[in-house]
Amino acid sequence: MIFNKTLTHWYSINKRSLPWRETKNPYYIWLSEIILQQTQVKQGLPYYEAFVSEFPTVFDLAKADESEVLKLWQGLGYYSRARNLHTAANYVVDTLNGLFPDNYKDLLKLKGVGDYTASAIASICFNEETAVVDGNVYRVLSRYFGIDTPINSTKGAKEFKALAQELIDKEQPAEFNQAIMEFGATQCKPKNPDCKICPFQESCIAFNKNRIEALPVKIRMAKAQIKHYNYLVFLSEDGKTVLEKREGKGIWQNLYQFPLIESKHNLKSSEIKDVISRHKLLENRTYTWSEYNEDVIIHKLSHQHLHTKFWVINLKTLPKDAIATNKIRKFAVPTLIGNFIESFNF
After folding, report:
1. The whole model's pTM is what?
2. Is 33 a catalytic residue?
């Protein structure tokens, strides 16, 4: 088919030099694909290099503590990816003797591996004819073929997967998959794609019908929920503070944070005083407190926006299990907390 040959030719000339393109080792391909989910290459590359350096084999990753993995992942967000990464590594080591599955169907059994990641590994490492479909692929196909089906719908997922599978170059599926992802990332970009030098300009429906900005189509998601967070930053005279591990399910599961008080609205200084005084760590203690940020810090997650304030509480002593402030950077924390730690300059 002309489409796939044109695409792979473009890729042979324009592909970026990236470390995971120099190998077919499934461990490294898997690692790169998990890191690059919902992450741009320029942000993910340093994390990939750090993980390869710290955990050069799947055995090294499996025997690490989850806290080590989360700490190395800090700042990438979507922490379930890191937890799934660790779980899958243990599965490969304990159940598969360190050998990654060599086909799409069995790769899907790995925790955190879905259709896209399984297709990428199967095609790149084992030359299986299974097409990848990610955000870049949705965009390229919807624009080129003028498809209005919402990409975040069940119908859309099936339609685009079937189309990609029909288009895949059966002689070189790995090249095709990497080419279409690269084309979407660097040429057919979400905004301001460089259509003037696009090899598909003459046959692209979106370009010829002036619909570049309208495609792909997405169903509008529910409006993000607003939550009000108040973090209590305890500081003792002997240089200690308090961090708590988040338990239960959630995107920040097993990460550390300062003691948290949720409120129904943004609390002012006059309102927080009574709330602080009821905290168990302040019973029968003398302390002073201050507002760190007068304006709320808004931290946006995919499904909620956190309106956050930090309150600094100074007191003489803290419990024995308190943490020395000079060791606070050793703990895996959400980006919101990490940014505060850097700005506060413990």
Report:
1. 0.83
2. yes
